[in-house]
Amino acid sequence: MPLTPGTRLGPYEIIGALGAGGMGEVYRARDTRLERGALPVAEAMKIAAQIADALAAASTRCGSAMARS
């Protein structure tokens, strides 16, 4: 899901894209609470991707176990 400049995620405002790859997308963002530039969105996206992968793997394992029942 590409984010456009100006999009807000919590206290962070997206400034622009830095790059994309197999693990997701990385954006430059500004922390509006502290009024400073930051890259917290990159870490948040990485964590979200890891959680999504873990949930997908758990769902697959659960489905496989139910199919064997």
How does this structure look, described?
- With 69 residues, this protein is α+β, with helices and mostly antiparallel strands.
- The chain has one domain.
- It has one helix spanning 40-68; strands spanning 8-9, 12-21, 24-31, 36-38.
- It has a 4-stranded antiparallel β-sheet, with helices on one face.
- Strand 3 (24-31) and strand 4 (36-38) form a beta hairpin.
- The model has no long low-confidence stretch (mean pLDDT 76).
Percent of residues in helices: 40-55%
Shape: elongated
Separation of the first and last Cα atoms: 37 Å
Number of strands: 4
Task: Give the class from helix and strand content and strand pairing.
Answer: alpha+beta
- Cα-based radius of gyration, to the nearest Å: 16 Å
Low-pLDDT regions: none
Q: Figure out the total of helices.
A: 1
Strand order of the largest sheet: 1-2-3-4
Biggest sheet architecture:
4 strands, antiparallel
The structural domain count equals 1
Q: Beta fraction of the residues? A: 25-35%
Oligomeric assembly: single chain
Explain the layout of strands and helices.
Layout: E1 8-9, E2 12-21, E3 24-31, E4 36-38, H1 40-68
Antiparallel strand pairs: 1-2, 2-3, 3-4
